[in-house]
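Q: Structure tokens for this one, please.
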Amino acid sequence: MKKVLFMFVAVLALVSCQKGAEKSSEATADSTKTEAVEEKTADATELVAPEKTGDIAEDLIAQAKFVLAKIKACKTAEEFGAIEEDQCMKDFEALMSKAEQEATPEQKEKIAEFFKDPANNFEEAMSAKLKEIM
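A: Here is the predicted structure, written as tokens:
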């Protein structure tokens, strides 16, 4: 989890650099048209947070899938950096802490199996998205 947080800090640094570059390019572009296109795109790709079931393992896995989907849906470094402050990440971290304390051995095994799958690896997803964005 520390590696994930470190990557978010790195992304925030990249976001600040990108903001400077975007501001200089906005001076030459018609920002009104760009904003209208961006708003339509964001509405069309909006993801919906999962419902809580009461099963720690199921809730954690659903939240992890949601966060991974949000990471994959990012189109800019700014969107990527905003995930750290997003409620979905806070919910995920809270569920991780709760699972560590309250999950049964069977639930912990289910969670471990989920995260063993390379498709569910946060670090890989974040690295791939960073490469794609940059």
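A few notes: The CA atoms of residues 26 and 119 lie 36 Å apart. Residues 9-15, 30-44 have pLDDT under 50 and may be disordered.
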